[in-house]
DNA sequence: CGGTCTCTTGACGGAGTTCAAAGCTAGTGG
DNA sequence: CCACTAGCTTTGAACTCCGTCAAGAGACCG
């Protein structure tokens, strides 16, 4: 809870009273490895913040059954299907624990109420939304612009703390590359 | 201006007085074919709504000088670098008119003021943001999941009104495919 | 008409996939 | 403490999708 508040205070100011109110809106939840936070077709009822652990969001390729990774999220990240949560409509994604994960959650109704009681949070969540949007835009352009090897090394640079916690085949899927090819890239550059 | 207001009223309610206030915040602007709305390195000072015309947002591949299309936008769409506009920081994209384009614009300061005077608009712009975010997420997963041919036909289905107004090589770049390959796809399926 | 912009076509090559098998590694239970 | 399993990574060989280059064919516009 403290790291969440710290995260928020990096972007907006909250009074001590607001912080107390804030804390009461959230509940803790634990997912064991392999457990689902959300399944394709369900509505995302909670906004979830990761205290510790790793989650993956993906959808299933209907042709070959492969998982296509939308995002990988670790400690101090949000892991919510924003479209599904904000419109309370069915999600097309699955979100699943890669390892045991501790969350802080808030339901959709409570979320609205919280924003009314602590208006500064409107700004915080807008900032989060916009910065996520910026990374998505970059990812799209980047995907078209660079080759597998460059994408892979850029990922290593940008998300070193994810790399050390998830298997390579998930990173491969995130990047739209085959796991085997990442293996070959690594082999090629072992000297360095 | 009327189509913009119609667009907004599809998502939130505005009183007649609010609509009057709203109109006063916006100014008209015309871009000739080839003119830039924004250049890489500049800050995006205006939020821009397209009354009529076509814009492309892209960045330049430093290796071969190619344009990598981030988005193509036509009548009744927004065409703003949201990250750059909301943080008032330098943009990494270019936005340029594909044909003569009429815009409605509002500066960053005025935008903030407008939101204060017409609070319902907070909701409207959040909805726009979230739905754009949803399309970006889908585009990422889709790009990794499908082959060139499927991506191309999906684009034809999803954005028929863009297809009829921009050259094929821009659509190719948007999809991360070569223009030549799209030509081959079309040839292959000419019978249908 | 002549020039510019866009689309098409062909030949070739390369980046990356697929499939199957083998090698690792870490955890688990006996 | 060792053996076994399950999950992950590596490797090899064949294959394919798609990009690149270069040239030509339309199409549009002054």
TrEMBL record, chains A, B:
<dbReference type="InterPro" id="IPR000595">
    <property type="entry name" value="cNMP-bd_dom"/>
</dbReference>
<dbReference type="Pfam" id="PF00027">
    <property type="entry name" value="cNMP_binding"/>
</dbReference>
<dbReference type="InterPro" id="IPR018490">
    <property type="entry name" value="cNMP-bd_dom_sf"/>
</dbReference>
<protein>
    <submittedName>
        <fullName>Crp/Fnr family transcriptional regulator</fullName>
    </submittedName>
</protein>
<dbReference type="InterPro" id="IPR014710">
    <property type="entry name" value="RmlC-like_jellyroll"/>
</dbReference>
<feature type="domain" description="Cyclic nucleotide-binding">
    <location>
        <begin position="29"/>
        <end position="117"/>
    </location>
</feature>
């Amino acid at each position: 809870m403290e790291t969440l508040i710290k995260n928020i205070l990096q972007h907006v100011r909250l009074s001590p009273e607001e912080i107390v109110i804030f804390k009461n809106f959230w509940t803790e939840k634990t997912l064991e490895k392999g457990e689902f936070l959300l399944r394709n077709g369900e509505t995302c009822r909670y906004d979830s913040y990761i205290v510790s652990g790793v989650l993956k969001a993906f959808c299933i390729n209907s042709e070959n059954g492969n998982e296509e990774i939308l995002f990988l999220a670790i400690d101090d990240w949000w892991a919510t299907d924003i479209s599904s949560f904000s419109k309370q409509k069915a999600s097309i994604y699955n979100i699943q624990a890669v390892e045991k994960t501790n969350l802080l959650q808030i339901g959709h109704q409570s979320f609205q109420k919280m924003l009314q009681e602590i208006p500064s949070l409107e700004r915080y969540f807008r900032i989060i939304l916009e910065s996520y949007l910026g990374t998505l835009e970059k990812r799209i352009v980047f995907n078209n612009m660079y080759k597998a090897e460059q994408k892979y090394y850029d990922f290593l640079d940008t998300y070193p703390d994810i790399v050390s916690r998830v298997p390579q085949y998930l990173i491969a899927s995130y990047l739209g590359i085959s796991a085997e090819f990442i293996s070959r890239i690594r082999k090629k550059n072992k000297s360095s």
